[in-house]
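Need Gliding motility-associated C-terminal domain-containing protein's 3D structure for a figure. Predict it.
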Amino acid sequence: MRPLLRFIFFSLSFLLLVSQAQATHVRAGEITARRISTTSLTYEITFTGYFDLQNGRPAADAQVDVQFFVGSTGPIVVPRLLPIAEIGNNTSRNEYTFTYTFPAPGRFDISVNLDKRNNNVLNIGPPPTQELSFYIKSTLVINASLGQNRTPVLLNAPIDLAAVGQRYIHNPGAFDADGDSLAYRLVIPQQGIAGRPNGSNVQYADPNQVQPAGPTENGTFPPTFGIDALTGDLTWDAPSVPGFYNVAFVVEEWRNGIKIGEIVRDMQIIVVEARNDRPRLDSIPDLCVEAGSLIQQAIRATDKNGDRLILTTSGGVYRADLIDPQVAIFQPNQPPNPLGEAGGVFRWQTSCDHIRLEPYDVLFKVEDNAGPNFPNPNLFRKLVDIKSFRIQVYGPKPQNLTAEPIADAAGRAFRLTWDPYQCQIPGAQIVIYRKEGCSDFEANACQPGLPVSLGYQEVGRVAVGAISYVDNNDDQGLRRGVLYSYRLVVEFPRPGSNINEPGYLNGGGSSLPSSEFCLDLPLLIPVITNVTVDSTGTTNGQITIKWTRPIGLSPDALNGPSQYRLFRAVGLTGTDYTQIATINTQLVPGAADTLFVDRNLNTTQNAYRYRLEYYFTENNALVKLDDGEPASSVRLEQGNAESRQIRLQWTANVPWMNTNQRHKVYREDPANPGVFNQIAEVPVQGPETFSYIDDGTDRFAADGDISLQLSADSTYCYKVETVGTYGNNRIRPAILLNLSQIICVTPLDTIRPCPPVLSLDTLDCATLEPDAYCDQTTFTNNLSWIYPAQNAQNEECDPNIVQYNIYYARFADEQPALLTSVVPPPTPPSTTFAHTGLTSFAGCYVVTAVNRFGNESAPSNLVCKDNCPQFALPNVFTPNGDGRNDVFQPLNCPAFVESVEFRVFNRWGVKVFETTDLGINWNGKTNGGQDLAAGQYYYEAIVTFTSVNRPSEPLVLKGWIQLLR
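Structure prediction for Gliding motility-associated C-terminal domain-containing protein:
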């Protein structure tokens, strides 16, 4: 016999010697934590356990304490809180609570391991399941930068009956007092090792996989089982085999996109035969309400069997210790409903204190109860239905926002004012947003705040008590001629790091945005409307500049001659202006005095930026009115692209808006040199750098379809035309068109390299001899791969591969790093590499291909290899000093062993020897050096091996030893 792990293991009825003093029969449980100190990191930690009273009441009652681990600290013995609560379904709830002060912020795993689950659980193993321990863990993150953190609490008990053939649903009723976002995912239940802080997975199958499987409640196949990641609804549709089932799921906490903790619930589902249909709750719509609203929601349940119904509800909104100040209530219908019906009204007077980012979950549960007159009580089972709904409480919108231009040192500013805000939450801020142009956006009550797609930018924020703000000439630069829109949004604080600081109980969130207010700065100075490239060249390039006449001048300013002075700088952001034109004007209608053609430029290499000054006559002298906003030409460049493609990128530094428009892309017709055909209209929404990838397809058919296949052997010429606007009906033309220079480019490469297909020599652990690695100290992994002719999308792969890069990671959870590069043989498609000098086989690999242009393919498939660990122990040794078999040690050659914890017990359960020596080397004496009598002893060995997985799961061996003298 050559098993993967060579050991001798016998079940021992008296292994209670390494277990807790009292066996338990655990159905379900979870661990929660909450901070209780204002000055230290002191938390109240609670394990809530649910015990089987039908099959193990004495043992469950005897579980007077449990042992906690906080990280590696422990065990911490914690007594049970009294009294024990019986919650029905032959189940008791026990709570074990203690306080713990963490030494510093950090991430902490809190765990509990109880000796025995209850018996006859159908979907976990190995049987008997009462020999499996119950291990549960929660993770608490204490991070000063994230503020205060408490784990969620689970308000709905984890024990309900499910009926054969009927849909089952459970919801934990999770509530997070910090307002953190919650997410749910299934995990495998775990068992632990006595006296150790970590656990390992049991043998597990989803409940719907227990055979024979039946149909869903509606008669379809196959049955389903899963959890809703958003709501936490655990649904099984439908059970087919009566019995106990255990499942586990994680409730994750997220804040600001960061996972900050999680708790695990391991729960039991009790499936029974029942000649009874489950009751039904009517669907309940989710609500989005403004803080201060009164919620009144009707709830209704029915039972087609006409059974008496019990309707209950749970959620954080009912608990004064979780929300402040006013809680919700549920008022059952009065007088009571007839048999087969139940209902009532959910009422909650919301307030400003209830505003938070995440919705409140409210759970309703209906249970049928036939009562003593049911004709056959032995066949009647109480069944349930669950529905939950979510309530989003948002802040009211700020009211009566107005703005007006003011004169300041820079000459450009607006003063904003608004009414005092309705919800004066400590720590809240009013955020001022501005955008160019106006819109008719109306906020969705279920989506507070401002969508990014609207283009608003934050320009400032003030305390929630403020009623005004001055927006002056900041880094973004208020510009004349531009129509601006302002809105206000109130943001509420997340939980603080100290219980006494403002906003500690708030859960973040936003108000609805205020109504829009639009205005512009007085338009006196002429504004530039066009900077368009007429021709491209190194010495003969040409640009046309256009502008408006002055608008809004007083009559006196229009008397006498006026003058335009035009300046030019090199580059999109150039500031080295040189005056290039002086144009005198009498502002005569129809005069050609608002246009200038700038010639003899190097438009091939340079963009150009222009600034206009306007002078009017005052006291017989020319006086400058104001500085105009500069505007640049459009600059077109080639960017990186994929195979058989050309990426075009263009930029313009202008005072008008080129966003929310459709720019035009032109490509020269190869058959008609000098003739450009429009190939695309590109919708752009920001930022100010725009792009388009040309794959040869003509996507604008109005002027003819000139599609072609791009080739690395050809050159293609392009120009773009931007489309912009000031968004101001006083400026004409309303639509501003400007051309870029022409660029001619060549695709760098037409075919990309494809990822190779990698394989790795494997080990057949079952066929290895016991002494396979006795004299081996270094190991080799042999890689081989094939380079495909086509990728998974049936696209051609570049055959011109000049190099393969090999990446290696010691552990499966690591990102592989470059190990080496190899040059392929003259005739692909396959090649090999031997990774030598390793201390074990454990490791993972990917390979990439590199073509002649230096382009690297995507990684190949990830291939990992693990060791074949070997560890076997004998049953007999003779420490009699005859030089033969005097020492108890592993058989043959143990391989890839990292650590050993070995303990020996006598028949009364007393530990007589322990060691961490990898070779054990027990000489039949106690640790104190005393000879032990001949006889039978019992051992426990916890062995960890070198593995590709991290952490390596320990192997627990238990057996007997015959000591002979």
